[in-house]
Amino acid sequence: MNDLSPINVIEETNFHNAWVKAIRFCYNQGNNIKFGNISDIKCIKDSCQLISLTGNAIQQILDKEIHPLYPFKQINQYCDEYTRQYLKTYLQKSLEEKFSYLYFDRLVNYDTIDQLSIMKDQLQEQIQTNITSNRCQAITWHPEIDLKTDNPPCLQSIQVRYIGNNKVDVHWHFRSRDLITAWQANVIAITECINNEIIPNNCIIARIVDYSDSLHIYDSMIDIAKEARFVPITQWPY
Question: pTM of whole model > 0.90?
Fold first, then answer.
């Protein structure tokens, strides 16, 4: 039996440096494990991490800034996958063209329930009454589907809470996450989706709490992990 994967908590006001801190922790202290299935075994360094983003990090995310070493560059295209227009086109594709799942599809078509529209109404109620709620939440997991597939959703849930003064606190939970190629794109796209679908224009995000049960580095990405460096805010755009 493998040792337990280490737990890490990061509080950052720089989006890029939060990524670097997470990488360094996972690279230096991560648990070396194998996961997947017998026909597709993956070797990773594994960690459990909670990353709190505040201050300037929120604006960096909204501006779609990525660290210069971040390998995935198609951020705008990825953000499009979290829109109703993309979903409309996606649903017309053949089964062979579709992914195992689409996060936005799960969020707005969960057993025909549009969870994001309901969350928008719930948040409006919080704002009008000035009473917060921890029940303003959407989920992606379908047990009858996802417990039996090799490719279940990584994103599990999203929560939005009103904290007064036209500010909201955003939390989300991932069961599994590729730290090197997925993390920054996930954060940017989900934030843009929440802003477009749930949060009114006169509100701002005060904090994003990003939690991953398994935030990991694939062995094939170790070289990128070794090169991760902190980046001053003033160094953007690159």
Answer: yes
